[in-house]
């Protein structure tokens, strides 16, 4: 099942499911039993997801997907947990030894934007804006001290993330939060795909193109710490809540380690593709401070 968050023609936020390139309004079709918020649906647990699946399977009408203004599938997670240096090929391109434990940082939730939204930055603040293709994991139920063996039971589904990074801020600060958390620096989407549609998230192609030029091209089999390991590691330290997002790291080919470096510029179009999920496209623009 593919679940989307979108803006209605009345400028209200709602939730739907995608069936054969058409969107079913789950709030209307459920007569209000399903809320117009993805996180709230996840907080209701299995009964809400079962109802959404039942409605989607029985739907006889919907509206064309291309007519919808899709937003990030999760607009309001309690936290975005990011993992650094989690692809073997990314470690190789930097000359780094693989880490012994996951490298955890965070992106602020105010960085979230959806598919088609503009990635913006102040050119007086940063001049080294980089792309990072990532598989994102969305938590479906409260998780605290979860074992690796049980970890996948806590996953609601998957989406795509572009972990946009201001490299000059990231490296000059000595820690990563500011450079990773500028407004619009966390595109997510285009939808949340439930695990039944992705039997093996550890064997998915992952690519990033800028202006149709392929700059990253790898596979999630290159992950150093897989999803169960990440859920166990994180939930030992802090509680994971429904709707929380774990972005699992990026493969080789990022701009800062190219020779010469390649950074995003005003007018660029950047697309992240993850097999079995789809693609996430955003345009880039420098902010006009005149």
Short description:
The chain is α+β, with helices and mostly antiparallel strands and 290 residues long.
Jot down its keywords.
2 domains; single chain; 5-stranded mixed sheet; Fumarylacetoacetate hydrolase, domain 2; 290 residues
Describe the structure.
- By secondary structure, this protein is α+β, with helices and mostly antiparallel strands.
- The chain starts with a strand and ends with a strand.
- The mean pLDDT is 95.
- Strands 1, 2, 3, 4, 5, 6, 7, 8, 11, 12, 14 and 17 form a twelve-stranded mixed sheet that branches.
- Helices cover 18% and strands 33% of the residues.
Secondary-structure map with pairings?
Elements: E1 2-7, E2 13-19, E3 22-25, H1 26-29, H2 38-43, H3 46-58, E4 63-64, E5 69-71, E6 80-84, H4 88-94, E7 103-107, E8 112-113, E9 118-121, E10 129-130, E11 133-139, E12 155-162, E13 165-166, H5 167-173, H6 177-180, E14 186-193, E15 205-210, E16 213-219, H7 227-237, E17 245-247, E18 269-274, E19 278-286
Parallel strand pairs: 6-17, 8-14, 9-19
Antiparallel strand pairs: 1-2, 1-5, 1-14, 2-3, 3-4, 6-7, 10-13, 11-12, 11-17, 12-14, 15-16, 15-18, 18-19
């Amino acid at each position: 099942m593919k679940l989307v968050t979108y803006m209605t023609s009345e400028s209200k936020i709602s939730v739907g499911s995608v069936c054969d390139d058409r969107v079913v309004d789950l709030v209307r079709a459920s007569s209000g039993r399903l809320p117009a918020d993805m996180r709230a649906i996840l907080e209701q647990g299995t009964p809400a997801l079962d109802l959404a699946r039942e409605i989607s399977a029985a739907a006889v009408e919907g509206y064309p997907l291309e007519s919808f203004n899709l937003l990030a599938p999760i607009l309001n997670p309690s936290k975005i947990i990011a993992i650094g240096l989690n692809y073997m090929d990314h470690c190789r391109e930097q000359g780094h030894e693989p880490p012994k434990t996951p490298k955890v940082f965070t992106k602020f939730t105010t960085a979230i934007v959806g598919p088609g939204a503009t990635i913006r930055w102040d050119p007086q603040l940063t001049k080294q804006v980089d792309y990072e293709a990532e598989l994102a994991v969305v938590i479906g139920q409260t998780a605290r001290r979860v074992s690796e063996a049980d970890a996948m039971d806590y996953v609601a589904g998957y989406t795509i993330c572009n972990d946009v990074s201001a490299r000059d801020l990231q490296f000059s600060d000595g820690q990563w939060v500011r450079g990773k958390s500028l407004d619009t620096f966390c595109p997510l989407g285009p939808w949340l795909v439930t695990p039944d549609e992705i039997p093996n998230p550890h064997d998915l192609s992952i690519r990033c193109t800028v202006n149709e030029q392929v700059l990253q091209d790898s596979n999630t089999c290159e992950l150093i710490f897989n999803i169960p390991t990440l859920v166990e590691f994180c939930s030992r330290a802090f509680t994971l809540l429904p709707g929380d997002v774990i972005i699992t790291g990026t493969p080789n080919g990022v701009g800062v380690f190219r020779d010469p470096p390649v950074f995003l510029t005003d007018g660029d179009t950047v697309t992240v593709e993850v097999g079995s999920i789809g693609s996430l496209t955003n345009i880039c623009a420098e902010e006009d401070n005149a």
